[in-house]
């Protein structure tokens, strides 16, 4: 499903974006750019400002400050023209329930001024891409959640976009459906489509993104490739120590953390010990018969929790 043209300039560039609702600054001097043919993930907890950033990028929300260039067009001034070259997969499926899968694609295509013959030609390939060829004449209410999301993805490709924007593409999907969406997104990027997605699933970002930004409270806290972000923001090793006595764990962490050069975070019945060198810690743990522990490399979720905290959102 190749993009109509391979863009040579950045398909999306945001500089110093600010959006306020009343006294609440929900996007605060945010800058990012998506390179041609890359997948960029915007990560953040609920309320971080991801959707607002996407809406501003599309010209659907008017920013208070900042410059946005989408597919070479200034936004919001020429947002309509820019949107003609963009595909959008919103967080909540907004397919037309009165139409079949085929009809949904064709009606959507008409918004882009695509003629009927071209739409007739494109529709089977889009349904095939979404794994919905057998559902061409099915109504939306007869589709599973995963099928609806795949159809929304196919619909977003009807205009052969240079840039695909996806707001939490796999939220609410089961693992099988998520993996299929991921395969399709990888295929699109390999074919030259640029992708910007928001997510709060670290594995999604780690698997798909060439580069990512972690944001919270409207600001970018870290950016780079997944590897770069991990290397720059957290110790390379994590030892998770389990116990069913939180007070005891806290005492253990306090007593042993510092001498063993360990940075510890306590969460429930687990102490997360972050270390540059595991030798001393693992030797010490081996002598503690009552403790269970797991040694693993640090990952994006560790960075995310370090930068955005372990407190519940919502
Ligand atoms: P995310 O997508 O990262 O979950 P959002 O961009 O949806 O975050 O929201 C960021 C913050 O802006 C939240 O605190 C949200 O309540 C607030 N917000 C979003 N839209 C509006 C609006 N139309 N009016 C007032 N506040 C809003």
Tell me the count of domains.
2
Average pLDDT over all residues: 91
Shape: elongated
**Main pleated sheet:** 6 strands, mixed
Catalogue the unreliable spans: none
Q: If you consult CATH, what is the topology of the largest domain?
A: Rossmann fold
The molecules bound to the chains, other than polymers, are: adenosine-5'-diphosphate
Beta strand % = 25-35%
- Structural class determined from secondary elements: alpha/beta
- Strand adjacency order, main sheet: 6-7-8-3-9-10
How many strands appear in the DSSP assignment?
A: 14
Task: Kindly report the name of the CATH homologous superfamily of the largest domain.
Answer: P-loop containing nucleotide triphosphate hydrolases
Radius of gyration: 23 Å
CATH class of the largest domain: Alpha Beta
Order of helices and strands: EEEHEEHEHHHEHEHEEHEHEEHEH
The CATH architecture of the largest domain is: 3-Layer(aba) Sandwich
Instruction: Tell me the number of helical segments per DSSP (H or I, 4 or more residues long).
Output: 11
**Helicity level:** 25-40%
Question: How is the secondary structure organized here?
Answer:
Elements: E1 12-21, E2 24-34, E3 39-43, H1 50-58, E4 65-70, E5 73-75, H2 79-83, E6 86-89, H3 101-111, H4 116-129, H5 145-156, E7 163-167, H6 175-190, E8 194-199, H7 202-208, E9 211-216, E10 219-224, H8 226-233, E11 237-242, H9 246-256, E12 263-267, E13 270-275, H10 279-286, E14 292-297, H11 300-308
Parallel strand pairs: 3-8, 3-9, 6-7, 7-8
Antiparallel strand pairs: 1-2, 1-4, 4-5, 9-10, 11-13, 11-14, 12-13
Helix pairs in contact: 3-4, 8-11
Bound molecules: adenosine-5'-diphosphate (ADP).
